[in-house]
Amino acid sequence: MRDRCYLVTGASRGLGAVAATALAAGGARLVLAARDRDALERVRAGSCHPEHHVCVAADLRQTEQIAGLAVAAETHAHGTLDGILHVAGGGLGLREPLIAAADLETLFRVNVVAAAELNRRLVPGMVTRRSGCLVHVGSIAGSEAVASVGYNTVKAALSAYVRSLGQHLSGSGVVATGILPGAFRAPGNSWERLEAGKPDVVQKFIAERLPRGRLGEAAELVPLILFLCSPAASMMGGCMVPIDAGEGKSYAATG
Fold it and tell me: Which CATH architecture has domain 5-183+218-243?
């Protein structure tokens, strides 16, 4: 990762912050993006060589802010951005099965459109340089109905997007890929909050769904993310890689 430059969305907390810290430890320069600038600054300050990283406060539901983030990323990378780690997303607490159109549109914008729009703006430069990686954080909910209707739907759409984009970019030098995590704990994520507020619900889920008897940890996802962010992942184009410790039941390896 040394001297490579990555944009990390959702970098203010959770998996985004954990992955960003690991990339920085490997010598990468980072553009850290999320809505909360103060939280981003804390992540930057706690990373190796904080002077090598910049923070950009951006609401990825807003197209004009995505455009500004893309410009900031190219500027910090001096026109040679090496990769994008798309962590921003989530279910936003929208659990109604008969989900309202506006809520579904919001979920789609946060989980799919934001990544697609950043890619649209930044991938052409990578193609010109014939080098780059796009790593998208999906979910096992993208390949089986294990969560809310809205979340399942948009994560399935993200998997379809990555598979299709990966095929399109094959041979360009740019690798589009991602991961399909099972349930995992990370600072500030939904599982950590649920465990704090309703530990009995979490224990019931673990007993019924997790063969190894515990939640995953964000740090356990990091080695796979680092691999996908590296040139060694050149054969992974279009692949959404399950990482769920046996929680998932789908045979479809790519979502």
Answer: 3-Layer(aba) Sandwich (3.40)
